[in-house]
Structures are given as C-alpha cells and as structure tokens.
Amino acid sequence: MAAFWTEADWDDHERVELVHDRQTGLTAIIAIHSTHRGPGGGGTRFWHYADPAGAMKDALRLSRGMSYKNAMAGLPMGGGKAVVLLDENRTKTPEMLAAFADAVEALGGAYVTAQDVGASEADMVAISQHTQHVSGLPHGDDLAGGDPGPSTSYGVYLGIKAAVEHALGKDSVLGVHIAMQGCGSVGSGAARLLARDGAKLTLADIDPARAQALAAELGASAVPAEAIMTTPCDVFSPNALGAILTTDSIAALDCAVVAGGANNQIACPEDGLALVERNILYAPDYVINAGGIINVSLEYLARMKGETSTREEVNRRIGQIPDRLREIWQESAATGLGADVVADRMAQRLIGR
Ligand code: NAD
Fold it and tell me: Whose CA is nearest to atom 33 of ligand 1?
C-alpha cells in the first residue's frame, strides 16, 4: 500500500487516528486536517465500506473539506472528520458509540464530532455521555444546536437569493423558476422558504411520492428525477447527491445559476471551468451549505465556555453566507477562475496553507 502522506488526499493532514476496539467491534478513522483556526470540527459518518482504503479516502477528503468549510463560515474551528466502518448489516450498538466517544475524548478536544450520514441526534446525545467534544446537542428551539438541516436550508435559501440578484439582477425570487433536485431535509426546507417568497418551483426526488407531496403542499410541479437537471429554469438547486456536475451534465443544464446544499457537487476540478464557460453562476457547495455547521459549532463553542448561543446568533452568522458568495463571484469574474477554485484559494489562505 502506498504511504498515505504521498497521496493527494493526504494534503498535509495534521493527524489521523486509527481506532479499533475488539470488545465492541468498533473500527474507526479520525482524521484531523487542520487545527490552525481551532479544534478540528466535523461529523462522524457511520457507513459500510467495501474496503478500508475507501474509508480512509473518505475520511481524508471529508476532513480537508471541513477545514475549508469552517474557515469560509468564519468559525474559529479547524477541520476534521471521522468514519466508523460498519459491517454489511450496518450494526451500530450503544457500546460501539461509547467506545467511539472514548476515542474522541482521548484526543482532548483536537477533534469535535457532529451528526453526519448514518447518525442521529440521539446518537450524538449518547456520545455526549462519554465526551464533551460533540457539537450540536439539542437545547431547545431558541438556542443553537439540534438538527443541522433547517439551518442548512436557511443558508441555501439566502444563497439562492444572492445568486438570483447577482446573475439576474432581481432583488426577490418572486416568479423566479427554481428546479430542485432532492426533497429531503435540506431541499424541502429551502423549497418552503422559496415558495413563501413566491418562487416558481419544480421539484424532483428519486422517491417520486416525496416530490409530489411537497409539490402539492407548495403549489409546485414535480418531474421525474432524471428530468430535473435538464429542466429549463433560472436556478438549478442540487440538494441530493454529490458529483452531479460533470462535463456532460453541465453541457445539458438550461439555467443561469447552480446553487444548492448537496456536498461535493463538482465531479472533477475542470468542471468548475465548464460552468464559467457556459456563463452559469455557481455557488460553491461548502460555502452555501455551511448553515448546519454554523448551528452545531456555535452550540459547542458556547457550551465549552459554560454558555449557550441563541438561534438569533446562528441566523445572524448564516446571514453572512451571501457576502462570502459575492466576494467569490467578484474574484471569479476578475480572474476568470471557477468559483470553486476561488473558494478553495480563499479557504487555503484562511487556514494558512
Ligand atoms: P436527505 O437524505 O434528508 O435528503 C436527500 C434527498 O435526496 C432524499 O429525499 C433522497 O430521496 C433524494 N435523492 C437521492 N438521490 C437523488 C437523485 N438522484 N435525484 C433526486 N433526488 C435524490 O439529506 P439532506 O440532509 O437533505 O442532505 C442533502 C444533501 O445536502 C446531501 O448531499 C448532504 O451531504 C448535504 N448537506 C446536508 C446538510 C444537513 O444539514 N443536513 C448540511 C450540509 C450538506
């Protein structure tokens, strides 16, 4: 096996812990990319990987992504990520969660975990019985913490409004046609906010009943999942899977803006430039979808000082997402670089790389 530190994904990680606990069957990787701006914050993914190298790749890429996301969100947090390698049956026991929490605690706050794919709010509460270094614990409606989904939706909504203003010169989404891929937690939340402002919505989900139910609720249209990326619209908003922006799919887009909450939307670095060439304004994913991490991090940072942070403060910070996007778009226009590349360079400057 090639040494990790010679591979591109390694990208100068500060620390990577391999955790194995025979008694509970826990196998996990905790990757800490950077603590330059603060503790390495990022969720734990519970997943069955066909081979451990895939888990390592995921941990390293996601951890670096968290450094960039936290920096661009203006948070005093570095970047980290953990993956727990589950068996084929995705067995996740309370004992395993406790062993994982002990491993996080042993890092003394260098890594701060949070909810991610395969984990629930209840899992985070269980983990908090063994370590304080878990973010996003629920404290009630008016306080930071809990499900990151609604905060992510709010940031996506604000980001779409900023993109519409920048690309179309409109100060409202009234009558603006938005095609939304994915009607889960983030997509449905953003769709409700956009519908309230009078946007025209076309919705799609691989679960058609989900798209149809949301369309009926919002007076929107629903189309089959395979039709959403070629639907003529003003804004295409990806809120489902990553790697959907490829050379072919970008060529087939019929929109002025791509802005949505899905992680890792651009499949290859060249694809960012293809969006520039097609004159499509792109909102870099980890900048527009930072609402959730802002919510959970403010909960953690306040708790570490024996305080609480309010929902109002969370929303104030999320309200800064449009400013960061505008800065990126201005630099992209001035340099001819893709918005994704501009965002990466800004993030690298912020984390001292
Ligand atoms: P979710 O599981 O609640 O919703 C995803 C939805 O997408 C589901 O309804 C699913 O059926 C649908 N879907 C999957 N594949 C599809 C396809 N090919 N076409 C159309 N629909 C499809 O997940 P979520 O929490 O809403 O997250 C959505 C995206 O946003 C993910 O990429 C996630 O990584 C990212 N994200 C989420 C958060 C958060 O706070 N939840 C934060 C940052 C980024």
Answer: 262
